[in-house]
Fold:
Amino acid sequence: MNHYWRKKVSVQNIRILTRWMTIVFIGLFFLSNLISFNEKDFDLNTIDLILMTLMIIYIFGMVLSYRYEFLAGFILTLCSLLYVIIHDLFLSSWFFDIRGYYLIIPGILFIVIGYVQNDINLNSIEFERLKNELADIQQSNTLANSMLGIVPDMIRNDDLDFILQKVLEKTIQSIPKAQAGSIILKIDNHMEFRAAVGYDLNLLQKLELKFEDILQYKLGLIHDPVIINDVETYNVKDVYQHATVEFSEENQIVSKAMMTHVIMYKREIFGFINIDNLEDPKAFSTKDINVIKRVTKHIESIIENQVLIENVYKMSRYDALTGAYTRRYYQEQVIGLYKESIKKSKSFSIITFDLDDLKQKNDIHGHEAGDLYLLSFANLIRDVMPKQSFLSRVGGDEFVLVIPNSNHELAYDIVKSIETKCAETPFTYDHESLYFKYSYGISSFPNDTEDLELLKRLSDQRMYENKRKKETQ
Structure:
């Protein structure tokens, strides 16, 4: 790079020196011609007029050299050569009269300068191209590292909104002129704000937007990345009228410039990412288009990975047949509830259920009927259990219902409600009504015990006591 600048400065110095030298040469040339004309008493003939015309063109070439050295050099060289040839053929011998030969020197110098300057310009263009490529690579690397930093959050948390918020924050940090932004997802024909930076997300989520209401649709720019420098013209009047609450003027923040691009998933529109500048209408330029494209590709990749992670989470957390928690996830959740209950001095209850006649149902009606029997029983419990409760399948025909903020009496009332529901809603298979038969056991924290493992065993023991009691009757 230093060599490039030294070469450029050297050419500039030679250019200045050549121009001054050309001016001196022209001055000497006209002085000598003035003496000749004086000796001839300015008796101009046709040859003199031709030579004067060539000198006028030569001076024009000199003026041209201030912008186009290469072209000026050819004009100066051609004019001086023609001058010498015509002068020597018609007026004197070149051997005795060398006047005019030195006019060729500036022309040759300007041709050389033109070649060198062209080389410098090409190097300059290449240098700028490489510099821009390096900046793009650095920005792409920054974005990639930012997105990689989200991976641990994705593994720890399967909440898509949480991940989208992290993605948006990292994106805005990676784009120098980005000050705010949002991600909106397409749900059927409606648009929902799911992440925001620089705006109140709670307020944005009160906007009832259809797909046809969004700015990208109105501009006909659904699939292409685009920069909008007059956002205020479009969306204040049209967007805020769809709010479920009244927006004050200070809450109606509208960006001055926006970059936006569609987010695709499985070849369908998943949503849009909007990157905003709140102050400068010309904050973004066409070179930023590549940035928003790269960001969108990262987001699409993250969404694909997130869906895979969600599926893995579901497989590890939810029973494939009944949708209840798995034994492992049940253990995690009940430990968390136990710690919270100790910390906040709250109670909770555990109810263990065991279906008494699943084997009989399988033997008589087949395993498909047995699976549907299990699913129906789980759904029946879900219809009755309180909102904060969670149901787990911890064995083939064994379920555990955990009820926060409850004691033994409340848990027993829920069991009675389940019994009523079972009596009113028998399991129907192949036009035959089959009634649920099950045993249960209840234990409550902290009344029964403050030891979690003992609490779980106690619920299990009481369930088996209930089963044995029914068998002896």
Q: What stands out?
A: The chain has 15 helices and twelve strands.
